[in-house]
Amino acid sequence: MATIQLYYWPTITGRGEFIRLALEDAKYPYKDEARTKEGLDEMLSVINPTAESPFDIPPLSPPFVFIDDLPPLAHVAKILFVLGPRLGLAGNNSETERALINQLQLSVSDIVSEVHDSHHPIATSLYYEDQKVEAARRTHYLVNERLPKYLSYFERILAKKTANVLVGDTVTYVDLSIFHLLCGLKYAYPKAMARIEAYIPRLLELKRSVAERPNIKAYLASERRLAFNENDLFRHYSELDL
Amino acid sequence: MATIQLYYWPTITGRGEFIRLALEDAKYPYKDEARTKEGLDEMLSVINPTAESPFDIPPLSPPFVFIDDLPPLAHVAKILFVLGPRLGLAGNNSETERALINQLQLSVSDIVSEVHDSHHPIATSLYYEDQKVEAARRTHYLVNERLPKYLSYFERILAKKTANVLVGDTVTYVDLSIFHLLCGLKYAYPKAMARIEAYIPRLLELKRSVAERPNIKAYLASERRLAFNENDLFRHYSELDL
């Protein structure tokens, strides 16, 4: 097992966390490269549009990873699709299960983008403070329409299952991602989630069971797991949590 | 070759067009199911959250497709990843090329979502007219920051190539998607694109070469190709094109 090199912003959980949780759960050897000064500089040079890239197809933005001899891979869902079988987190590894897990992961990516845009509805390049009015308006629809739509979709899938996992009979990487999504949403919107959680009992049970997995439990207690903060993807602003 | 069943909103090009272009280019037998009343009703029942779904993992939203014996597949990038080799549009079909094509397609999906949110920055459930002020503000950043970022990224990739295609030596589905993206952007933001096009000569050449492919040319001249309109993903509002 060649060590996997993960590149992601060093001070936030962000999109990198979905990759990190899968690697930690599998106890797969990996290095969080950008948590050192040199690694961070390297990451910045790889994504710098004005620098000459050593790669034919450079990643557009973090997270990206180096796996075996593959070129750098970007996009959370793509990375997890490729990593999944290597980590034993892609169900029975059939084309069908791999496709379905990936498909659900893409919906997780979609929610994550909507969560991001709720505190940045106008531009990523502006501060939250410069788009607070629009953020409040957008977040209203996020918590009242979008989160219920997505979360009840996942809940309905669990309702058809015997094993309380989204695809197949065992925990896959998308279950780990759902765990992190629910943690992030609870952090960002505690009041709204208290309402929503009333009708997603199976997802909450899945969240609890993932938190109890020994490798995840050890990871969450370690200093490798960063605390949520207001530079992160999931942000708590009391004025947005109604 | 079993006929592929495609389900997508019948009156817009939208996200379905990325799938349609690949199928048309390959002359693969497919049926645009939701263009009949029965098919549309069927699509609506499949994505209806309150209806009992016949699928363990139903699609969350269109487009979705039925390919061979696979369960319904959703998400443009996922559908194209699975269809690509069947259509001869996935380069040399190696794990590496398939991963890279898919990765670039995911960036296309990201731009497409940003384009959508530029006319709907607050909520998909509201009319454009109810979020015009925010749309104008967001679109400013879209055309001045986001489109240049994404399009110059693709341009830089072409700059390293001998063949003017994004991955490998032959046209793949992501090249077809880039064609549609550039058509849509030109329709929506003719003034802004006139500025941007000055520094994406290779992408424009790729767009021209895709338009000349015989099956694409025939498709574009057919009535199967819908005209852009203001219910679509790419919308032209003169007040947003500055």
UniProtKB/TrEMBL annotation, chains A, B:
Keywords: Transferase. CDD domains: GST_C_Sigma_like. One of its GO terms (biological process) is glutathione metabolic process. Residues 94-233 form the GST C-terminal domain. InterPro entries: Glutathione-S-Trfase_C-like, Glutathione-S-Trfase_C_sf, GST_C, GST_superfamily, Thioredoxin-like_sf. GO terms for molecular function: glutathione transferase activity. It holds the Pfam family GST_C_3. This is Putative glutathione S-transferase protein. It comes from Rhizoclosmatium globosum. The lineage of its organism: Eukaryota, Fungi, Fungi incertae sedis, Chytridiomycota, Chytridiomycota incertae sedis.
